[in-house]
Amino acid sequence: MRDTLAFGVQQDERPCLERAFAQRRLGVRCLDVFMNGDTAPLAAGHEIISVSVNADLDADVLRTLDRGGTRMIAQRATGFNNIALDTAAELGMTVARVSYYSPFSVAEFAWSLAMAAGRRVVRAARRTREFDFRLDGLMGRDMHGRTAGIVGTGKIGEAFTRIAHGFGMRLLGWDIAENPACAELGMRYVELPRLLAEADLISLHVPLLPDTHHLIDGGALRSMKDDALLINTSRGGLIDTEALVEELRRGRFSGVGLDVYEAESGLFFLDKSLDVIQDDTLARLMTFNNVLVTSHQAYYTADAVGQIVETTAGNVADYLAGRTGADVLTAPGLPPAARR
């Protein structure tokens, strides 16, 4: 069957996805369940599937898909740490991603977390709904004149930097390569330990790779200022969450804003309000008044989702036409060195 079977489609996303495929005269069926070992058999008979950022495409899942006849996977996300690409290549599967969408969606949301955590907005909103208008415990601080440390200065990091520049902040950056646009704004590139030690606000914008897994570990957390703000809208695995909980128990950090969590698969995007949460680390994290957790929604704007589904439909159209576009991660005949 050449209609695309799309997994993990959000209610708001569905009409956008259906419209993008219809404009290319392509068929698509949408499911709200996420791709994992339990749901992979649902793809049997479908040559093309599309998955969301929280899909689990490990080697076993890919082999199940292969036995069911799936030959192409179109991921509706930029990151691909959730896909066993080597296995996909061995099976001769084509895997494509969305290599670009609005960086402003994530950067602006990172700032939303920073301001909400730093200015105690959530706590204040809860109080005022109960007609408690005291200011005790709500004191924040100005961003102007303080130091922003941007870890990763690609497109999203650059957009975050421009906002920080607008606040009048001192800019420190860390990346494997300098971004001239950030340097023009006055950013000074330094080693990561110095950035972590000097920054009042630290925002993470690097991909999750073997080298960046737990980039912010216990030692990195201990090197930060006691009143620092830590924001992560990239990938949960960048932070050692158990180490973060230990530092929070010591009363450290002015605020922490997390839109991602390293064990979010099977939790985020789902209604777990009636369940007993078995993840003790996440449950403990939620108890801290200075921690704000959201459910991987930084990308979720009409602008960004529109670009994501348009690119996804284009990737499927390319596959059907026998084209290997720039978003392809692996495909039959694509040499390993060419994989992005």
From TrEMBL:
Record Pfam families: 2-Hacid_dh, 2-Hacid_dh_C
Nucleotide-binding recorded as keyword: no
Domain D-isomer specific 2-hydroxyacid dehydrogenase catalytic, residue spans: 14-327
Matching Gene3D superfamilies: NAD(P)-binding Rossmann-like Domain (3.40.50.720)
Record InterPro entries: D-isomer_2_OHA_DH_cat_dom, D-isomer_DH_CS, D-isomer_DH_CS1, D-isomer_DH_NAD-bd, D-LDH-like, NAD(P)-bd_dom_sf
Keywords from the named record: NAD, Oxidoreductase
Domain of life (superkingdom): Bacteria
Domain D-isomer specific 2-hydroxyacid dehydrogenase NAD-binding: 112-298
GO molecular function terms noted in the UniProt entry: D-lactate dehydrogenase (NAD+) activity; NAD binding
Residue ranges that the Swiss-Prot or TrEMBL entry lists as coiled coil: none
Keyword Ribosomal protein annotated: no
Family membership: Belongs to the D-isomer specific 2-hydroxyacid dehydrogenase family.
This protein's name: 2-hydroxyacid dehydrogenase
Taxonomic source organism: Streptomyces boncukensis
